[in-house]
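U., I forgot to send this yesterday:
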Amino acid sequence: QVQLVESGGGLVQPGGSLRLSCVASGSIFSINEMNWYRQAPGKSREMVAVSIGTESPNYADSVKGRFTISRDNAKNTVYLQMNSLKPADTAVYYCNGEFQIDSVGSTWHGWGQGTQVTVSS
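Result:
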């Protein structure tokens, strides 16, 4: 099994920055993808940024140009650098990933517990 643990959330003023981290641990043979989603109060969970294999990342239109996803495969970690934050970015941010867990191609897919990001003056 694999565990995903997010960190880096908090309270920030509009226009500020935060960097989220998500560390994967457990029986990881390789990383297929690691992504960020978010869920605001009363809304459905939505994709923020995805990092699949060696493909270029994809971003939600609402965060393009402000957020950057990056991975450190040696550390089994994905980051989300968030700049020019807006109150509309307030949400619980979740890490999501798919991992190969053995040499024959078995995979595990799951979610972290989430980290709260609040953008407010």
